[in-house]
Amino acid sequence: MPLPELTSLTTGDYLKSWLSQVRGRVRGRTYQGYAGLLRRYAIPLLGEVPLKDLHPLHLQHPYGALLEEGAGRYRDQLSASTVLNLHRVLVQSLGWAERFGLLERSPAKAARPPRPRRA
Q: How many angstroms separate the CA atoms of 105 and 47, rounded?
């Protein structure tokens, strides 16, 4: 995947690029989990936001919406565990953006995912 223009990079383009970079660094099932979470939930909800403008509230709002309303055609309400897993993938992916200077600070660090219920 060619490097997109950094000044106009959308969050969706960045996340797709990150997935291609991380593919060789993790096990196959781990990659499939990352890709599924990002493609089903993060990219449709955040994909059009310019990466440089991404704010913790851009993450916080979808976390609540996924818990209450679900993700449209994929499923009704998501469990807190699924939203927490999505948050963990966003922490990793946006941490790379911070490390490489694409973001001053990862918005995922400030967003607060739901707590899963203990069984």
A: 18
Question: What integer pLDDT is reported at residue 94 of this predicted model?
Answer: 98
Mind giving me the DSSP string for the chain? -PPPPGGG-BHHHHHHHHHHHHGGGS-HHHHHHHHHHIIIIIHHHHTTSBGGG--HHHHHHHHHHHHHT--TTS-SSPPHHHHHHHHHHHHHHHHHHHHTTS-SS-GGGT--PPPPPP-
Mean pLDDT in residue range 81-94: 96
The pTM of the full predicted model, rounded to 2 decimals, is 0.88
CATH number for the 7-109 domain, one of 3.30.930.10, 1.10.150.130, 3.40.190.10, 1.10.510.10? 1.10.150.130
Domain extent listing, the chain: 7-109
